[in-house]
Amino acid sequence: MAVQGPFQVVFEQVFPHGLGVVGAVAPMADFDASTRENRVQARDKDTGLPVWVVDVMDFDPDARERTFKVKITADIEPVVPPVVAGTPVRPVVLDGLTVTPYLKEVGNGRQKIAYSLRAASMAAPRQRTTDPKAA
User: Fold this and answer.
1) Domain range spanning residue 115?
2) How far apart are CA 77 and CA 68, in angstroms?
3) What pLDDT is recorded for position 71?
């Protein structure tokens, strides 16, 4: 098959109900290069940029897995969007989103298809306006 590696996807198609940050951004560890005394941050194999990880929540009420990690490849630590009053999470939009399918062990030698998500950046969702003059 000619298709290999990550698939470029549109954020709104993957998360039509939205997505929210539920944890802090942290450097992703390179487990092969790290030791107990010296933790090394992972780098993207294609760009060489540092890889960061953040816990997010899918706002889809029917989602099978509500929370998961997203990797962000960026030169500097991504900034979590500001708090929205009255919400327990910080709504976010991921730019440059890719999906990489892989096989995940689920026990007793069984496997299922799982997905790894990676983004180039994250930002607060744009405000929608109801003013017809603004269109």
Assistant:
1) 7-124
2) 19
3) 97
DSSP state of 41: B
Strand spans (E) along the chain: 7-8, 19-21, 26-27, 51-58, 67-73, 90-95, 98-107, 110-119, 121-123
Task: Provide the H-helix boundaries in the chain.
Answer: 11-14
With H, G, I as helix, E, B as strand and everything else as coil, classify residue 80.
coil
User: How do residues 61-71 score in pLDDT, each as one tens digit?
Assistant: 999 889 999 99
**110-119 and 67-73 as β-strands: parallel, antiparallel, unpaired?**
parallel
Number of domains forming the structure of the chain: 1
Query: Which SS3 state, helix, strand or coil, does residue 98 take?
Result: strand
Rounded to 5 degrees, φ, ψ at 133 are -70, -20
119 near 72, Cβ under 8 Å?
Answer: yes
Is 132 within a domain? no
Q: Which residue from 89, 87, 70 is spatially nearest to 9, judged by alpha carbons?
A: 70
